[in-house]
Structures are given as structure tokens and as C-alpha cells.
Sequence to fold (291 residues):
Amino acid sequence: MTELKTSKYILDELKGPFTPEDLKRYESFGKRILWLDKSSIPGTFQMNCSWYLKALPKGPPAHSHDCAEIIGFISGDSDNPTDLGGEVEMFLEGERHLITKSTLVFVPPGMNHCPLNLLRVDRPIFHFTTVTVGEYITDLPREIRYGEPPYDKYFISELHEPESRKHLIPFYKTYAKRVLWLDKDVVPGAHNLNISWYLKASRTIDDKPHTHEHDEIIGFCGGDPGNPSDLNGEVEIYLAGQKHLITKSSMIFVPAGMEHCPLTIKRVDRPIIHFTVVLGPSYLRDEKEIA
Fold:
């Protein structure tokens, strides 16, 4: 069967800028799932996701980036998606924060962040980072502080659904459970990221083709840390009118202006982690020119 032209936008296997030794070292405390950057899909921005499995008292050291970053720590228990099931210690501009709930951390360009230490992991924690450029590059800490402390406003551990989408909540709850939502209205300057658990087979609120003015990454990850590549379900999604059936943990890069969806959850044998990241200040979509 001829591969679809839009298959090139789907990443469903682990590739990345690391050696077997790097992976072995990472596996002393976690399990990488996917790493997406411009070397695997040209034009994309960078995102990677993993499972944290064990404590790591001394994690990544302090550094900065020239671009914005979002860092996520998400409970691996879909029945209790708020309680992290562990403790993560993270520093912003030298200020210590203890994370015990599912949390998104927005890191503006140039902000010093980390060390990041896993103090306790009682059950697997889903972790991801995403930066707004095509590869993950770290710089040394900057000498100038980014604003004045405290920096609590950059840590989001409560769900803030946008007003424009609240009418969709009753239907969304019939098949999924939203965990967190981040955009400019939650943290000024942030871009959009939201993360959920898919719980049941269903049509979704994204049941119409649409486009965005900004690039997007759509993710589906299996909820079994012991077998992280298996989606334990089936998700059907259209890209530029071409149908794809997702059966493995996957990230999909959707360039600005590309028509995508409908998105249908065909089967859920075990809860599926779902996320979208849009490089715009809000989640806005355009259906006006699509029949």
C-alpha cells in the first residue's frame, strides 16, 4: 500500500539526539517515549515526552533557553489526575518550588530554570517539555534575573478552561477528562497547551475539519508505562483530508494552515493521554472556509 503524503507528519517511534548510553542512563529513573524535532519532521517545533519511574535526587542543572518552554508533570493515574503521586523539586531563577500536583510550568525566553530533582515517585509520572523552536538547545544560566520573585504565577496546577469553550465541557466529559489548560489568559505571554485523558470511544469536539494560524503538535500516548509505545486503543484523525489510524503513541505535527480532523476515538482499552500544543496565545481555529 502506498504511504499517504501526510504520513510524514506523524512520529510514532523514538528517535532523538541521544546515544544508547544516554538512554541507558535515562532508564535508571525513567523511560523515554517520543522525541520530536526538526531532524525527524522538518519544520516542526520541538517536544519530547517520558515516564518518570524512580526518584532522581540530582537531576538536570540550571540553564536557560533563547525561546519559551513549557514543562509538564502529569499524574499517571487517570482516576486521580490532580495528585502527582510524587514530589518534584524545581527552581526558577534560584527560587525553589515543590510540585505535588499535576503541573504545567511556563518558562519565558531567557529565564533561568532547574535544577529539577525527582524527590519521590510513588507511581509513574508523565513528563514532557516543549520549546518553540526546532531543536532543544540549552545555554548557561543568565546573570540577570527574569523579573522579581515570587515566580508562582508560572506554575499552573489548577484547571482554567477558557470561557469560549466552557459550553463544550458537558459533552467533553462524556468521553474524556481534562487535566490542565495553559494560554495567555492563564499566564500572560504563554502559548497554548492543554492535556487530557481519553477514557471512552466517541466522536470528539474536534469532529469538523479546521485550520490554525499557528503550528500545532497533537499527541496521543498510551497510559501503560511498562509498554509506552502501545496506545492501547485506536484514534482516527484526518490530515489534509487523508485518514490515519493511530495505534501507537504518536506526535503529529500540523503546520499552520493545514486542514486537520475530524478526530474520532475508535477504541480505548486503557486510558490514553492526549495533548495539543499551539504556538499561538490561544487555541483558535478557523472553519469558515471548510465545507
Observations:
- The helical segments are 20-26, 169-172.
- DSSP finds two helices and 19 strands in the chain.
- The chain has a mean pLDDT of 95.
- The longest helix spans residues 20-26.
